[in-house]
Amino acid sequence: MILIHIALRNLLTHKVKSAIVGGLLVFAAFLIIVGLSLISSIDKSMSKSIVNSVAGHIQLQQKGAKDELSIFGQMGSNEIGYIHNFAEVRKKIEALPEVAAIIPMGIDSSIVFGGNVLDVKLEALRNAVKAGDKQQVDVVRRHVRRMVALLDDELKNLKGFSDAAKMSDDMKQGLIDVAAANQPTFWDSFDQDPFARLEFLENKIAKMAIGEDMLMLRYVGTDTERFRKVFDRFEMVDGAPIPPGQRGFLFNKFTYEEQVKHKTARRLDKIKDRLAEGAQVATDDEIKLWIKLNRSQYKEITYQLDDVATAEVKLALQTELDSKEEDLPKLVDAFMDVTDANFSQRYEVFYKVIAPRIRLYAIRVGDTMTINGFSQSGYATTVNVKMYGTFRFHGLDRSTMAGAFNVLDLMTYRDLLGYMTADKKAEIAKLQAASGLKELKRDTAEAELFGEGAGEQVEDTTNATPTAAAAATPTDAPAEATPAALAAGSGGGSAKVFARELEKHVYTQAELDGGVIRSTAIMLKPGVSVEEGMAKVNAAIDANKFELKALDWRAASGLVGNFVGVIYAVLAFSIFIIFLVSLVIINNSLVMSTLERTREIGTMRAIGAQRWEILLMFVVEAVVMAIVFGAIGCALGYSLVAWYGHFGILAANDFMSFLAGGPRFYPALPGWGLPVAMVAVGIVTLISTLYPAWLATRITPLAAMQDSE
Amino acid sequence: MATPSATQPIVHLSNVDKDYQLGAVTVTALRQVSLEIAPGEFTVIAGPSGSGKTTLLNLIGCVDVATRGEVVVAGRDTGKLSEGDLTRLRLNALGFIFQSFNLVGVLDAFQNVEFPLLLQKQLNAVQRKERVMDLLQRVGIAEYAHHRPGELSGGQRQRVAIARALVTRPRIVLADEPTANLDSVTGNQILDLMQELNREGTTFLFSTHDPKVVSRAGRVIRLVDGRIQAEESVEQFQSSHA
Ligand SMILES: Nc1ncnc2c1ncn2[C@@H]1O[C@H](COP(=O)(O)OP(=O)(O)O)[C@@H](O)[C@H]1O
Ligand SMILES: [Mg+2]
Question: Which of A43, A357, A366, A486 is paired with A146 by a 20 to 30 Å CA distance?
């Protein structure tokens, strides 16, 4: 068609106009393509991060709950309600052909004391005494004695600062006990009755030393076995998964490294990472700070070393530093003063010589850890649970957001939650009635719940150790009584035995599904869109009259979920602005070119072209421009996206890596991106052509007659 | 529509006035103009600058309408036609040759000539090509068929323009000072061509203020201040300018 020819010819002939209009259109198309690719890829990868780590595609929470679920939102208990009928919900929702799985969960955070070095050393001392290893007893005892002396010093310092009148009686008594344990007489007579002395140290002194490793842990209480299988980002790093149906805790490797690892070691790791990224000690303020802390906090290391270890470390450091210094603190200080040149050597020595002799992690795989929660009714609850290992969410290793999630079994979670279902209350009441006791001893009652065998063993140990009563934490109100709470305690032997029994207990699926939970994650089958899933799940909720509210992963994840919406808005807005500017500029330049072509258009009209044919010519020209420049812009944008899609963009920080769903971000153009960009460019071009085209149709054939050359 | 016969005039004007409104002032460019053009004529409208030649051609060319009086072109009263109909009349019954050639700069000679045929949508590509090439041949620039106007001389351009005016086989070809932008030699060649084409059957009506050009005409309509001063034969004109 001649009009297309004219349009193309015009583009080539009016170079300046074409350059301006073309440049704008190319840029607009480019921006749309790149922007859409980035956003849709972020959306996709972030949805993977969120969906496949903890949220699932859809979350259900109690309908009418005060707070909306916010999985990645702020810590702290929010009132998101409870789900009591999970078993039934599961049956109905899992029956939907669109649903792959539904997982019960509750997200909470609690305080965990890492257990202190004194505890560990006291256990070592007890073992040495039991084994009758005189030499070992001597070494450990000297270490413990030194630790007690340090503790006494510290507490006396503390006392100087605080008002004695305001001190609790417990605290006052504690100070007296520690002072007593710091007397030479206490130690001189140690061998006469080592178990009594140990008892005293374990029960009265060790608790005064807590506080150095207070961890605030966020965890998702869930059906651990199903969680592990359904969330494909989940993978074990150390240790083993929690055996199906059993109690247990898994650390997120990120949290484990950040919070549980020995501070000095952690700082050395960070320095190593930072140097690997190309930083230099001299110019990096953070590295300088870490070095300063490592040097000043030499006690973190020296405090943990007994005589033998002290001698070994001292020798190694003297060799390493080529020094005759006898004072270990000074050696550690000098050793920690690392430079670019010696860092890798020092790092190696640290892990070879020092690390094996200190507690590298406050809680190790296989340890039983004590979680201090606040139950929903406001009582402090304390449970013991075994740490089975560490895991990570694949690709989200560095993300603080995903890395904050640890995993806890449902039963322990419920104990911490302290929420008792009517069923459970009734069950306990029944047991009480059956046993004919006025108030059933809580530990026995719970033991009954878990069967005779467990109960008997617990009772045996209860009889053997007089501290059993103390193990049943007196802080708990009867309604809060839970097996694990009973098992928790300040180091009493029987509690530990009881906890061990609990650890071994395998709960049935019915038990797991039967109790209270706070929300559930629904994973959809591949290929099912979230919208479709939401519709089906909502229909099922209505059909079964469940008191539940469904939220898609975006809504359920809190602020992060809206992030994509926000950048969409930002992109949309900037594209809108660019379009507006383009519109004005293109319009102007087309008006100018129309005026320039007045004679030509007049001639066409004179020769016999109708108005609409002139209009058509402009429309064709606009479409040709849109196609040509839109295509160029799309091609440029697509090349850029393809380039980065192939090589990836390094996620600059942990939030970026969360968005990217991995260490690198691979943008990809969604299938609908190209048509959207082309149509958008087309629309802008057409709109900006409207006015000049209208002007052109106003040109009369007389314009051809006027001579103006 | 009456079938045009050889004896019916192609153009018929009676008592035509044309006023231009310049703000509050009314300029009357044509007064009481009556004339007829018969098929086969080679007529020139002569007169000094500002005498109303262009205005008259515009009325006959259906690009403007008379203020008063009747303008009938190819049997149709232009005062009663819609703009679309006027456009169609221009396309099918008239050919235009402009003083400044007015070729479409982005199209080559062939495409410029073909353009009216494309608007007519009556011939297929093969027929169009034949018709266009024949005409380019006839005006003597077939070898420049694929040159753009910018690559052609003034005379060559005007030949292209003539071919374009003739390509639809119009009842009459109107030309407003077709040689004004050409040197006298080239102008003469163009006039030769027009004369030849006229002999072959095309009706020409053109304007000029150049006495030498007037001498080539078969009939001279003399305009002074918008009035037809005299209808004179070429001989009379020549003697009056001798
Ligand atoms: N568009 C117009 N508006 C106002 N006056 C016009 C216009 N066109 C022509 N005229 C006036 O009409 C008269 C005739 O002009 P024109 O037909 O162009 O004469 P010519 O072509 O013989 O030089 C002149 O006085 C001119 O100023
Ligand atoms: Mg004129």
Answer: A366
- d(Cα A384, Cα A491) in Å, to the nearest integer? 11
Q: Which of B21, B27, B99 to mutate to test the pocket of ligand 1 (most atoms within 8 A of CB)?
A: B27
In Å, how far are A128, A149, A197, A456 from A184, measured between CA atoms?
A: 21, 10, 13, 42
pLDDT digits (tens, 9 = 90+) for A660-689: 777 788 888 888 888 988 998 999 998 999
Q: B235 CB near a chain A CB, below 8 Å?
A: no
Q: Work out how many domains chain B is built from and give that number.
A: 1
- Residues A216 and B55: their CA atoms lie apart, in Å, by 95
Under 8 Å between Cβ of A415 and A502:
no
Is B2 among the domain residues?
no
Name residue B12's beta-bridge partners.
B36, B72
Subunit contact B176:A705, Cβ cutoff 8 A: yes
Q: Which helix (H) or strand (E) segment is A571 a member of?
A: helix A559-596
| Phi, psi angles (nearest 5°) of residue A224 | -60, -40
Are both A304 and A347 inside the same structural domain? yes
Structural domains of chain A, count:
5
Give me ligand 1 centre to Cα B227, in Å: 13
Distance between Cα B188 and ligand 1 center (Å): 26
Asked if B134 contacts B215 with a C-beta cutoff of 8 angstroms, the reply is no
Nearest to residue A614, comparing CAs of B63, B119, B103, B120? B119
Domain identity same for A692 and A599: yes
CA of A707 to the centre of ligand 1 (A): 11
Q: Is residue B227 part of a domain?
A: yes
Amino acid at A110: S
Q: Note whether A490 and A395 are same-domain residues.
A: no
> Looking at the structure, do residues A242 and A322 belong to the same domain, yes or no?
no
Regions of chain A short of the pLDDT cut 70: 1, 74-78, 114-115, 160-166, 210-213, 374-379, 419-501, 707-709
User: Does A459 lie in the same domain as A442?
Assistant: yes
| CATH number of domain containing B151 | 3.40.50.300
Containing domain of residue A400, as a range?
Answer: 65-115+213-261+365-419+515-546
What is the extent of the structural domain holding B19? 11-240
Does A53 reside within a domain?
Answer: no
Ligand 1 pocket at CB < 6 A: B 20, 22, 27, 29, 47, 49-55
In ligand 1, the atom with minimum distance to the C-alpha of B52 is 17
Which residues from B are below 8 Å from A704, CB to CB? Answer: 63, 96, 98, 102
Decide if A412 contacts A250 (C-beta within 8 A): no
Q: To probe the interface with B, which of A17, A603, A699 has the most B CB atoms within 10 Å?
A: A603
Q: Specify whether A570 is located in the same domain as A699.
A: yes
Say whether A96 sits in a helix, a strand or coil.
coil
Distance from the Cα of B218 to chain A's closest Cα (Å) equals 24
In a domain, A509, yes or no: no
A609/B96 touch (CB, cutoff 8 Å), yes or no: no
Ligand nearest, relative to CA of residue B46: 1
Per-residue pLDDT of A471-492, as tens digits, reads: 333 333 333 445 544 444 444 4
Q: What is the B110 CA–ligand 2 centroid distance (Å)?
A: 28
Same domain, A143 and A183: yes
Number of Cβ within a 10 Å radius of residue B74: 21
Does residue B236 contact residue B222 with C-beta atoms inside 8 Å? Answer: no
The answer to whether the CB atoms of A606 and B104 lie below 8 A apart is no
Instruction: Test A609 with B119 for CB contact under 8 angstroms.
Output: yes
pTM > 0.80: yes or no: no
Count how many Cα atoms sit within 13 Å of the Cα of residue A135 in the half-sphere of its side chain: 1
Domain co-membership, A392 together with A445 = no
